[in-house]
Amino acid sequence: MKTYSVEEAQNCLSELLAAAHLGDDILIHGNQGRAMKLLPTIIAQDKPLQAGSAKGLIRMAEDFDAPLAEFDDCRA
Question: Average pLDDT in the 22-49 region?
Fold first, then answer.
């Protein structure tokens, strides 16, 4: 993991963002022992969601809607 001070990060922010986008771990340490980590985030999807695309991947338990024992005291 590459570590930079806030001042160093300000001077080469575009390079650090590009490196984080490629998967490098970038840690920026600030004042009072605090640190921030640059992580890439996906904002938009390449293809639209399609209904039914998760069919067969999700299973609901038979007792999904059964009362929970933890709430026995709450029932009147």
Answer: 81
Please check the confidence at residue 54 and state whether its pLDDT lies above 80: yes
* Residue owning tokens 């933890």: 70
DSSP string, the chain: -EEEEHHHHHHTHHHHHHHHHTT--EEEE-GGG-EEEE-----S-SS---TTTTTTT----TTTTSPPGGGGGG--
As a whole number of angstroms, the distance between CA 70 and CA 44 comes to 41
Q: pTM here? A: 0.49
Diameter of the chain measured on Cα atoms: 65
Instruction: Give the domains, in start order, of the chain with CATH numbers.
Output: 2-38 (3.40.1620.10)
